[in-house]
């Protein structure tokens, strides 16, 4: 009897701060990973700022580039969660850089001629104390889709505090119920879609 390996979920946290600084983006990503683990996935978290990721649109830009090793972790996952704060109404510059480096694979294909990153599920987590969660999600959705990821229904969870105030997600005494239920919906639909794509991969493009 063949045992199907568990789904693999990878969260890339795109806070501007290196570890061990506290991060609201990481907290929300960790909560989503816990829910994905409850769906049967193995989970892993990477804080991008802890690695050297030079600018560029290449798989490897040379000496000192940590991206090739991170890319291998992306290629090994079934579900990729990008977690970002909102800065000036946009995803963090770190999130943009991750997408730009992933863009190196946009023209690469697998043995069947499908986009190299197809068959993987993309999802987003956003935190901030200013407006813009939907806009940030839309930006990341477009990038993930262009690269080859498939988006499930309710592919984003977010928390946005009162505008122009200093409260962060990590400052809350408890997780708001609406955030918890939205994160649970994301985990459920992402895991379901990842299983479907494993069982029924996208067809090869017509020749």
Automatic annotation (TrEMBL):
<feature type="domain" description="NADPH-dependent FMN reductase-like">
    <location>
        <begin position="16"/>
        <end position="154"/>
    </location>
</feature>
<dbReference type="InterPro" id="IPR029039">
    <property type="entry name" value="Flavoprotein-like_sf"/>
</dbReference>
<dbReference type="InterPro" id="IPR005025">
    <property type="entry name" value="FMN_Rdtase-like_dom"/>
</dbReference>
<protein>
    <submittedName>
        <fullName>NAD(P)H-dependent oxidoreductase</fullName>
    </submittedName>
</protein>
<dbReference type="GO" id="GO:0016491">
    <property type="term" value="F:oxidoreductase activity"/>
</dbReference>
<dbReference type="Pfam" id="PF03358">
    <property type="entry name" value="FMN_red"/>
</dbReference>
